[in-house]
Structure formats: C-alpha cells, structure tokens
Design brief:
The structure holds two protein chains of two kinds.
Chain A: H1 2-32, H2 43-55, H3 57-90, H4 92-105, H5 114-121, H6 125-149, H7 153-161, H8 166-177, H9 179-203, H10 209-218, H11 222-246
Helix pairs in contact in A: 2-11, 3-4, 3-6, 3-9, 3-10, 4-6, 5-6, 6-9, 7-8, 9-10, 9-11, 10-11
Chain B: H1 3-27, H2 39-51, H3 55-86, H4 88-103, H5 110-117, H6 121-145, H7 149-157, H8 162-200, H9 205-214, H10 218-246
The chains are: A mainly alpha, B mainly alpha.
C-alpha cells in the first residue's frame, strides 16, 4: 500500500516535471529567435490570446455554430448508422451483401467528398453537417452491426418467450445489450465528425471554429491560432472522454 | 454457389443498378446535371484523368509521402513505445497522455505546420507522422507488456543480458502487436496525407481533386474521387496482406 502511494507520488512529480520542462523549453525557444518571429510565441502571449478569445462574443458565436453542426451531424449520422447497423447485424445476407462496401469506404479520407457536398448542400452549414454526417456514419454503422451480432442469444430467447413486441425487443433487449460497443462507435464517430466538420470549415466557410483558426493563420496571428487549437483539443478530448464514460458498465445492483 | 457468393453478387448488382438509376434520373431531368454528372461521363473521364492529369504520377507522389511518414513512424514510434515499457514510471506518467493524443484532432494543426514548414511536402509528411504516432507507440507498448512471463523467465534462466533479453525475447514476442500498430499508424497517416493535400492544394491525389473541383470538371472530379477510393482500398488490402504474411500464426 505504502509502495503504491510512493509510486503514485513519483508519477505525479514526474508529470509536473515533464510539463514544466515543456513549458520552459517552449519559452526558451520563443525567446531564442531560432525560429521565425512569432512562429513560437511566448506563453504569456498565448495565454493573453486565450483570455481575449474566451472573453469575446465572436468566439462563442462561432463555437455555437460548430457545436450545432457537429451535433446535427452526429444526430443524423448516428441515427442512420444505428438503423443501418441493426439491419445489417440482424440479417446475415444483408451483411454479406453490403458490409464489405462499408469496410472499404470506412477508412477512405472523407474530406475528398467535400466538393461534392458543396455542390449538393451549398457553402453554408449544410455542407459541413453533411461532411460530419458522412464521417461519423461509418464507425457507428460498423460498431452497431458488430454489436448486434454479439448479443447473447439467451437474451433474445428470453425476450421472445415473454412475447415482447419489436419495439420492446429493441428498447429492452437489443439496445441495452449493445450499449458498450455502440458507445465506443459513437465515441469514434464523434471524433471524426469533429474533424470532418472543422476541416470543412477551414476549407470554405465564413463562420465556425475552423474558420476562426484559418483566419488566425491568414492574418498570421499565431498566439490566437495556438489558443484556438488548445480550446479545440481540450473540447475534443473532453467530449471523447465523457462519451467513453457512458460505455463503462454500471455497478452491479446489490440485492439485500 | 454459396449463399455468401450470392449475397456478394446482390451487393455488386445493387451498386450497378443504383448507377443506372442515377443515369436515368439525370437524363430525365429529375436530378440536376450541373450538380451530379452522368455516371457514363464519369467512367469516360477515367482514361482522361490517367493520361492528362497524370494520376499515376500523383499516386506515386502520395505514396512517397506515405512512405516517408511510415519511416518516421517506425523510427520514432517503436523506440518511444520501448522506452515507455522499459521505464515503468514514465509509462505510468505518460501512457494516458499518449491515449489522449490518439483522440486529439491532430490534422486541425495543419495551419500551424504550414507556418513552420511552409506549403511543402514536409508539412504533409509531418501531419501524417503526427497523426499516426499514437497507435504505433501504444501498440508497441501493448505488445511488449503482453510478453509471456514464461518466455522472460527462459531468458533469465539463460542469464541473458538486458539487451539480449530485449532483442531475443521481448521484441520477437511483441512483433505482431508492433505490426498492428504500424498498420494503424499507416492508415491514419494516409488518410491525413490525402486530406491535407486536398486542403492546402499541394502534392498528389488530394490536390488533383481540389484542382478538378476548382475547374468545375465534375466528371473528372468524381472520377478522381473514385480513383482515391480505389487507391485507399488497394492500400488497406496490401497492408492487411503484409500484416498477415508477417503474422502467419494468427
């Protein structure tokens, strides 16, 4: 027990040392003039830019646009992926017929479809939502199909023996049994939906967080660009971790 | 003919029928031809993009970028995974950070890479490298950590030095997992490399799609997208076969 606490303290100190080393190294690089001026801005400049961004209404307006686009993409892509995944997982013939296409298209770089999405949905939010939807559909449908096939047949027989309706089977048997793999699929889907939407915003948009990042690049406002990237990374990693927690099994119910 | 083969046939037939349906709807004027080109025009454009747009040379350029990124991934990712395994305290401190890196949208940093490396092949390769690094580190670590204790005990009973224990026991046992990590890293690198080529309008296949879109050459653009999809499928298939060849017992 004492040894574990000792180790834990060492790990904590090592983490602090690594963070301190990186920050000091960064500041030294910023002051050294080895790189082009402002490519590595000082930490204080980044913190000031972060504070300015967080205090401005423009930031929250653009953040709301991106959150709305990612949320809509996840809702549409998630619902479509879940429905298609359940259909493919429940029917072996459909799975053999159509699942190979999903495996082929799944790892293809989706951003190449952006010109098509612009043609179909215009240059406003529609094309960004479509990019996010296209990105998140594939991990969710593949996870849902695999999860459907892995449901314990005993659970399905129990549902049928109680003469559960299709709706009851879906809500009481299938979805609870598929929760963990589906949450994993949604987690992967959210990550790629964020990337798809933001990359589309950097390519062609006049609002959203991707637009702000590319504007900072275009005006060579490096502290602001670093600040925006930090915010995006924190939000993405945080959302990923939050959804991941939903997939953890519940604590077993104690029966007295 | 097995049911599986019939199902495959149904899948391909559905795709062909969908293409014919789109062709019919376009010719009937139900779908706007200024938005979606005729599938027959897309097929006819394929030889043109091969000859006039030098698609094979562009494929070669993208492949070269992926190759450079993969060399960097192997050179940096595997040693970092070994280091995390070798020093337990470093692993405890950093493993969750590497996991978070895997979930981070690294490709969004491409404007930053543009500032540092310019609009060049280096930017594209470095983005591919950064995007693929985390899985290589994590899978190398996983493979080394999963080495059976009995194998390590055999090494100790032969009084192997630390270096011998690593080269003769740990690394061979971890190789399957290391290759899985390299394959994942390569896939991430390839996706991001094509994506950044498209975004910064520089390089191989990604740039071709951007150029054709800017020229409003719809059949050519759709044809180039088909080519990228085919190239991706070929790439993933080849890496999967190489992995199976290197791991014959799995």
């Amino acid at each position: 027990m004492a040894a574990a606490e000792h180790m834990s303290a060492h790990v904590r100190w090592l983490r602090i040392a690594i963070v301190a080393f990186v920050l000091i190294g960064w500041e030294a690089l910023a002051m050294s003039g080895l790189l082009f001026r402002d490519v590595v801005p000082s930490l204080s400049a980044i913190v000031r830019a972060l504070a300015r961004a967080l205090a401005s209404g423009e930031f929250y307006g653009n953040l709301a646009v991106t959150l709305g686009e990612v949320g809509a993409a996840l809702a549409i892509g998630g619902a479509a992926g879940l429905a298609a995944g359940i259909a493919l997982g429940a029917n072996r013939f459909l799975s053999w017929a159509y699942e190979p296409f999903l495996y082929y298209l799944g790892p293809t770089p989706k951003i190449i479809f952006f010109p098509v999405m612009i043609m179909w949905f215009g240059v406003a939010s529609g094309s960004k939502i479509a990019m996010g939807t296209l990105s998140c559909f594939f991990p969710i449908v593949i996870s849902a199909a695999a999860a459907m096939r892995e449901i314990d047949p005993v659970l399905i027989r129990v549902g049928r023996s109680f003469r559960a309706s299709p709706w009851q089977m879906a809500t009481r048997i299938y979805l609870p049994a598929m929760r963990a793999p589906i949450v994993n699929g949604v987690r992967l889907g959210l990550g790629v939906a964020i990337i798809g939407t933001l990359l589309a915003e950097t390519k062609l948009s006049n609002r959203g967080m991707g637009y702000l990042v590319i504007q900072a690049y275009a005006t060579f406002d490096m502290p602001r660009m670093y600040a925006l990237l930090i915010v995006l990374f924190v939000l993405s990693i945080g959302a990923n971790a939050l959804i991941g927690r939903l997939g953890l099994p519940h604590a077993p119910v104690q029966r007295s | 003919m097995t049911t599986r083969a019939v199902a495959r046939g149904v899948g391909i037939a559905t795709l062909v029928l969908a293409a014919f349906a789109v062709e019919g709807l376009l010719r009937a004027g139900v779908i706007n031809r200024f938005i979606v080109p005729l599938p027959s025009q897309v097929l006819a454009a394929l030889p043109r993009i091969v000859v006039e747009e030098h698609v094979l040379a562009r494929f070669g350029q993208t492949s070269l970028e992926v190759l450079w990124a993969s060399l960097l991934l192997a050179a940096a990712g595997i040693p970092l995974g070994v280091m995390l395994h070798r020093y337990r305290i470093v692993r405890l401190a950093c493993e969750s950070w590497v996991g978070a890196l895997a979930a981070a949208p690294i490709v969004l940093m491409y404007p930053l890479f543009l500032v540092i490396f310019g609009r060049s092949t280096t930017t594209i390769v470095m983005i591919g490298f950064a995007a693929g690094l985390a899985p290589v580190i994590l899978k190398t670590l996983e493979g080394l950590a999963a080495t059976r204790v009995v194998l390590q005990d055999v090494g100790r009973s032969f009084r192997l030095s630390n270096a011998q224990q690593f080269w003769k026991i740990l690394l061979p046992a971890a190789l399957p997992s290391v290759f899985v990590g390299l394959r994942l890293g390569l896939i991430f690198a390839m996706i991001n490399i094509v994506g950044v080529e498209f975004l910064i309008n520089f390089g191989g296949l990604g740039q071709l799609i951007n150029e054709l879109a800017e020229r409003y050459d719809l059949p050519g653009m759709y044809g180039a997208i088909l080519f990228v999809v085919a190239a991706s499928i070929l790439f993933f298939d080849v890496t999967e076969r190489v992995e199976r060849w290197l791991r014959p017992n799995t």
